[in-house]
Amino acid sequence: MSSNQLTDSGQLRHFLTIEGLKQPLLTEIMDRAEQFSGITNRQVKKVPLLRGKTIFNLFFENSTRTRTTFELAAKRLSADVINLNINTSATSKGESLLDTLHNLEAMHSDMFVVRHSQSGAAEFIAQHVAPHVSVINAGDGCHAHPTQAMLDMFTIRRHKQHFPDLRVAIVGDILHSRVARSQIQALSTLGVGEIRVIGPKTILPADTQTLGVHVYHDMAAGLEGVDVVIMLRLQHERMQGALLPSAREYYDCFGLTDEKLKLAKPDAIVMHPGPINRGVEIASTVADGPQSVILEQVTHGIAIRMAVMSMTLGAQSEQQEVQA
Amino acid sequence: MSSNQLTDSGQLRHFLTIEGLKQPLLTEIMDRAEQFSGITNRQVKKVPLLRGKTIFNLFFENSTRTRTTFELAAKRLSADVINLNINTSATSKGESLLDTLHNLEAMHSDMFVVRHSQSGAAEFIAQHVAPHVSVINAGDGCHAHPTQAMLDMFTIRRHKQHFPDLRVAIVGDILHSRVARSQIQALSTLGVGEIRVIGPKTILPADTQTLGVHVYHDMAAGLEGVDVVIMLRLQHERMQGALLPSAREYYDCFGLTDEKLKLAKPDAIVMHPGPINRGVEIASTVADGPQSVILEQVTHGIAIRMAVMSMTLGAQSEQQEVQA
Amino acid sequence: MSSNQLTDSGQLRHFLTIEGLKQPLLTEIMDRAEQFSGITNRQVKKVPLLRGKTIFNLFFENSTRTRTTFELAAKRLSADVINLNINTSATSKGESLLDTLHNLEAMHSDMFVVRHSQSGAAEFIAQHVAPHVSVINAGDGCHAHPTQAMLDMFTIRRHKQHFPDLRVAIVGDILHSRVARSQIQALSTLGVGEIRVIGPKTILPADTQTLGVHVYHDMAAGLEGVDVVIMLRLQHERMQGALLPSAREYYDCFGLTDEKLKLAKPDAIVMHPGPINRGVEIASTVADGPQSVILEQVTHGIAIRMAVMSMTLGAQSEQQEVQA
Question: Is residue C221 pLDDT above 90, yes or no?
Fold first, then answer.
């Protein structure tokens, strides 16, 4: 739980983790995204909401896809965006991370979108930034990926409306997945009826009980009667380790095929954070099939990021006015 | 010939190749570029025509120069531009090309500017994109480079007006040149009086007859009385192979010197797509001399790209209105 | 001294070096920056002054920090910015530097911001650019870094007002520092009472007499009674050479600690161009202490760059009007 992502009046000042956020706030994010969703369908996909704001994409870990969605979201809000690949910049001159950050703050930046391979990096940065900077966590180690979780919730709400009635299954490498952790927290906060996690024992976390989820090692049993199937991406580096059998064996047990999908409800939707490994965690016929909403997730990712960016910068300027 | 670069009403939906396009359309592109040409000379070099549009520069093959001209053209039309070097992005995570494209489409992009080392790549992508995306070919393998050809035609028209009266010579590695292929198609469609290609036998295509060009292996004979001399860039990798003699020997035979240029008409213009190899395919005195229009070509390249971008996106939104 | 950075009427056409510029012009730059300083504190940090202008960041030497400040300054003036890392672009295809520049000029660019490892590179480029392009030196070899010097002057003026009353000490590797050279010229032009340079003999220039500075090899003596302490960054590559003792030994002699700082005036300010090497040239307690204005320098860097960019482009368009 982050101690400092909310302002005193409970507004979103940073967006670091789903943990600790209340249901009305998650709903507000989705409602705001709903408004932006209309904009991105218009001929002119831009609003002047963040004109004159400076947003830094601080990517300590490379992710073109995620960076692009944040860059697009910022540009559609009319903000100025600077992409920094931190590995190749000042830190290579021996400057400390905090010195780099303080320098960027001093350039009157308004937001840092942070991607880092270490868990807790975004939280650490948020603890040290100046009052005029908001931090968005764009994925930190195995810890959290809150905008991904929110775009997933938004996608579910678009198709399924009422969360308490739903059974949701998450399939794959839960143990190492920041996406899964954030999804479970969001699903739980939104009051989803039943959350299931499905995977081999080696890549399920030991604390599944405390997470409030039901654990399945058999995919057929786990998919039975669910409304939503969320597949996780299998990291190639895991497959080379001892934690997992071969890709082929994994696919046989935990890959989502048309047959296995039939065990879920007939109107179940299939989700995946991308990029997908066809034939490893998901069959092409499923990924491209009528129940797949994978590309919708990408679309909604822009709207969710626009929502979170405008909310945090809004909360911040309100707070600065109060303090002024 | 591309089957799908025109809408049902004959407007430019993609811009993939000159092949198959009719003379009035090529003229329309040049007329439109003429309008934009005025804009880039103004104090404020921007028009709001594509405000809110999202253009991706998808460069599978590095070309800073070409990417920059497309980026500038897009920015001067007020579009948002995202540069993606595809080698270093999602495909390195094992995602297929089409999955990458569909993801970018799902971000509500409006245009892909594609550069690829394989012939047919832009056409392939155009066949698979969503209806709301236009594809511009920024060079694919040995196949086509249609915006380069059109900026060359525009440059010729600026100096020479009436195409049927002209004799045009293209000198160099025709066989491997996407530029030459597109130029020959454009010159031919615009009814140029005589098209000559000049080069050693090893790098002239076998099908020159069907291209409707006259072939010369002797440069002096080929340049005799021409109005326009188009030099091609000699690829360094060719010179190391068996197809060509040394750079020195090539220059002696096919390099454009002041003396050889005297064989052309006195008011002949000299063109080159750049970057030039001084002393390999062209003498510095010619490249920098009074008959050279090489830098004008660069300038016109922006206007031509603005024209093609605005025409394809215009055709697309008209079509969407019809279908809506 | 640059022969061509001023227009006939004495306005700033390029900004290449402090050398040769008169005091009223340096004051004008600071006054203009003062105006922009207000803008960067506003909610909307943008003015439309350079809307439609095209600015190229030509970085032949990597410097993310400096490039970012120029990029931000340009964007806050509403210009379009293209970042080019020249090592990886056309020059790798064998194109000469001047051909690359002339190509960029032909794209109707308005400004080149040049960073280069060779002294004189910006001057060389300015001598060869077309009349419609302004050149800003963003650091060339050991020669000059004029925007850094001006942001330092601006920072001093913010704290100390009247230059003739001041004693200023510059500490470190003066010999190899373009920052120090530009600072000394600016301090001298602004009539600073006393300029001191402090460092080991091996890294002090031989011509300190002609620079009009007082030389100290003993830091305690040099800091005595100064109003401003400017620390230079110690280049790691120097420490591996024979010119310097170990980092530890250097710190003992020339590192700025709280104790040594006490020798300066009680209200002395501490400056550093960044990035800082903590524990090498400066103690963390000093860098983060109440007398440090290091982060203010970063902030002022944006305003100074906005000032210089708008002044050079303003002078240029005036000149073009005169000539038209």
Answer: yes
Sorted by where each begins, the domain ranges of chain A are 23-145+299-323, 146-293
Range name among A205-214, A235-244, C143-152, C189-198 with the lowest pLDDT average: A235-244
The answer to whether the CB atoms of C108 and B277 lie below 8 A apart is: no
Alpha carbon distance C91, B284 (integer Å): 17
Q: DSSP H helical segments within chain C, as ranges?
A: 23-39, 64-76, 97-106, 121-128, 146-160, 178-189, 208-211, 219-223, 236-240, 247-254, 258-261, 284-287, 294-323
Task: Give A29's strand partners.
Answer: none
Verify whether the Cβ–Cβ distance A62 to B100 is below 8 Å: no
A320, A131 in Cβ contact below 8 A?
A: yes
On whether any CB of chain A is under 8 Å from the CB of C148, the answer is: no
CATH of domain A23-145+299-323: 3.40.50.1370
DSSP C251-274: HHHH-B-HHHHTTS-TT-EEE--S
**Computed from CA positions of residues B73, B123, B88, A179, in that sequence, does the dihedral angle turn out positive or negative?**
positive
CATH H-level, domain C23-145+299-319: superfamily = Aspartate/ornithine carbamoyltransferase (3.40.50.1370)
- Cβ contacts of C276 on chain A, cutoff 8 Å: 95, 99
What's the pLDDT at A302? 97
Query: Taken in order C116, C120, C122, C125, is the CA torsion positive or negative?
Result: negative
How far apart CA B32 and CA C14 sit, in angstroms, is 35
- For A204, phi and psi rounded to 5 degrees? -110, 140
Q: Which residues pair with C194 in a beta bridge?
A: C167
Enumerate the residues of chain B whose CB falls inside 8 A of the CB of residue C317. Answer: 43
| Assembly ipTM | 0.91
List the CATH code of the domain at B146-293.
Answer: 3.40.50.1370
Specify the pairing of strand B54-59 against strand B80-85.
parallel
Q: Long-range pairs for C282-287 at CB < 8 Å and ≥24 separation?
A: C282/C231, C282/C255, C282/C256, C283/C255, C283/C256, C283/C257, C283/C258, C285/C257, C285/C258, C286/C256, C286/C257, C286/C258, C286/C261
CA gyration radius for chain A? 20
Q: What is the pLDDT of residues A74-131, one digit of tens each?
A: 999 999 999 998 874 444 555 788 899 999 999 999 999 999 999 999 999 999 999 9
Let me know: does A154 contact A133? Beta carbons within 8 Å.
Answer: no
Q: Tokens standing for B264? A: 């052309």
Confidence of residue C247 (pLDDT cuts 50, 70, 90): confident
A7: helix, coil or strand?
coil
Question: What pLDDT, on a 0 to 100 scale, did the predictor assign at position B40?
Answer: 75
Task: Please give the CATH number for the structural domain made up of B23-143+299-323.
Answer: 3.40.50.1370
What pLDDT is attached to residue B90? 47
Q: Residue A72 pLDDT more than 80?
A: yes
CATH 2.30.30.100 is right for the domain spanning C146-294: no
Return the number of CB contacts < 8 Å for B and C.
67
Residues B33, A266: Cα–Cα separation, whole Å: 54
Query: CA-based Rg of chain B, rounded to a whole angstrom?
Result: 20
Of C42, C71, C298, nearest to A103 by CB-CB distance is C298
Does the fold of domain C146-294 match that of domain C23-145+299-319?
A: yes
